[in-house]
Amino acid sequence: MTSESRDYIFVCTGPTCGERGGKLLLRAWKDSLVERGEWVTRRVVPVQCFGECATGPNVCVHPRGEFHAAVDAREAETVLERLVAAIDAPNPAE
Ligand code: FES
Hints:
Helices cover about 35% and strands about 20% of the residues. The protein is built from 2 helices and 4 strands. The longest helix has 21 residues, at about 15-35. Strand 3 and strand 4 (about 65-70) form a beta hairpin. The model has no long low-confidence stretch (mean pLDDT about 95). The relative contact order is 0.23. The protein has one domain: Glutaredoxin (3-Layer(aba) Sandwich), CATH 3.40.30. By secondary structure, it is of the alpha+beta class. Bound molecules: FE2/S2 (inorganic) cluster (FES). FE2/S2 (inorganic) cluster (FES) binds near residues 15, 17, 50, 56 and 58. FE2/S2 (inorganic) cluster binds near residues 15, 51 and 52.
Protein backbone atom coordinates (compact mmCIF):
# COMPACT_ATOMS: atom_id res chain seq x y z
CA MET A 1 0.00 0.00 0.00
CA THR A 2 1.45 3.31 -1.03
CA SER A 3 0.11 6.72 -0.18
CA GLU A 4 -0.72 7.15 -3.89
CA SER A 5 -3.11 4.19 -3.79
CA ARG A 6 -5.09 5.48 -0.83
CA ASP A 7 -8.35 7.37 -1.05
CA TYR A 8 -8.37 10.65 0.81
CA ILE A 9 -11.33 12.61 2.07
CA PHE A 10 -10.18 16.12 2.89
CA VAL A 11 -12.44 17.74 5.46
CA CYS A 12 -12.28 21.46 6.10
CA THR A 13 -11.92 22.16 9.79
CA GLY A 14 -11.15 25.84 9.29
CA PRO A 15 -12.87 28.54 11.34
CA THR A 16 -16.19 28.55 9.45
CA CYS A 17 -16.45 24.91 8.39
CA GLY A 18 -15.16 23.67 11.72
CA GLU A 19 -17.94 25.45 13.61
CA ARG A 20 -20.56 24.28 11.12
CA GLY A 21 -19.71 20.60 11.58
CA GLY A 22 -16.38 20.05 9.85
CA LYS A 23 -14.68 18.97 13.07
CA LEU A 24 -17.55 16.58 13.85
CA LEU A 25 -17.35 15.09 10.35
CA LEU A 26 -13.60 14.55 10.65
CA ARG A 27 -13.92 12.75 13.99
CA ALA A 28 -16.95 10.66 12.98
CA TRP A 29 -15.48 9.56 9.67
CA LYS A 30 -12.10 8.71 11.16
CA ASP A 31 -13.75 6.62 13.88
CA SER A 32 -15.98 4.92 11.32
CA LEU A 33 -13.16 4.05 8.92
CA VAL A 34 -11.03 2.71 11.78
CA GLU A 35 -13.94 0.60 13.08
CA ARG A 36 -14.56 -0.79 9.60
CA GLY A 37 -10.89 -1.64 9.11
CA GLU A 38 -10.65 0.73 6.15
CA TRP A 39 -8.14 3.15 7.67
CA VAL A 40 -5.35 1.52 5.66
CA THR A 41 -6.98 2.28 2.31
CA ARG A 42 -9.00 5.40 3.12
CA ARG A 43 -8.03 8.39 5.18
CA VAL A 44 -9.75 11.53 6.33
CA VAL A 45 -7.45 14.52 6.49
CA PRO A 46 -8.15 17.93 8.01
CA VAL A 47 -7.74 20.97 5.79
CA GLN A 48 -7.62 24.52 7.12
CA CYS A 49 -9.59 26.27 4.36
CA PHE A 50 -10.63 25.66 0.75
CA GLY A 51 -11.45 29.35 0.30
CA GLU A 52 -15.15 28.50 -0.05
CA CYS A 53 -16.17 29.28 3.52
CA ALA A 54 -19.70 30.50 2.71
CA THR A 55 -20.73 27.03 1.55
CA GLY A 56 -19.14 25.04 4.38
CA PRO A 57 -18.65 22.61 5.77
CA ASN A 58 -16.75 21.54 2.68
CA VAL A 59 -15.18 18.24 1.72
CA CYS A 60 -12.98 17.20 -1.21
CA VAL A 61 -12.45 13.58 -2.27
CA HIS A 62 -9.13 12.49 -3.80
CA PRO A 63 -8.34 11.04 -6.31
CA ARG A 64 -11.68 11.90 -7.94
CA GLY A 65 -11.34 15.58 -7.09
CA GLU A 66 -15.01 15.84 -6.16
CA PHE A 67 -15.92 18.86 -4.06
CA HIS A 68 -18.91 18.66 -1.73
CA ALA A 69 -20.35 21.73 -0.05
CA ALA A 70 -22.76 22.13 2.86
CA VAL A 71 -22.12 18.60 4.14
CA ASP A 72 -24.47 17.88 7.02
CA ALA A 73 -22.61 16.51 10.05
CA ARG A 74 -25.90 15.14 11.41
CA GLU A 75 -25.86 12.76 8.45
CA ALA A 76 -22.16 11.88 8.79
CA GLU A 77 -22.50 8.12 8.41
CA THR A 78 -24.92 8.34 5.48
CA VAL A 79 -22.72 10.85 3.70
CA LEU A 80 -19.63 8.69 4.28
CA GLU A 81 -21.44 5.72 2.73
CA ARG A 82 -22.27 7.81 -0.35
CA LEU A 83 -18.70 9.09 -0.66
CA VAL A 84 -17.23 5.59 -0.34
CA ALA A 85 -19.71 4.21 -2.89
CA ALA A 86 -18.75 6.97 -5.32
CA ILE A 87 -15.04 6.32 -4.74
CA ASP A 88 -15.51 2.60 -5.39
CA ALA A 89 -17.68 3.09 -8.48
CA PRO A 90 -16.00 2.77 -11.87
CA ASN A 91 -14.70 6.12 -13.07
CA PRO A 92 -16.33 6.91 -16.43
CA ALA A 93 -13.36 9.16 -17.30
CA GLU A 94 -10.97 6.20 -17.20
S1 FES B 1 -13.22 27.49 6.55
FE1 FES B 1 -13.82 25.85 5.24
S2 FES B 1 -13.59 26.66 3.24
FE2 FES B 1 -12.90 28.22 4.55
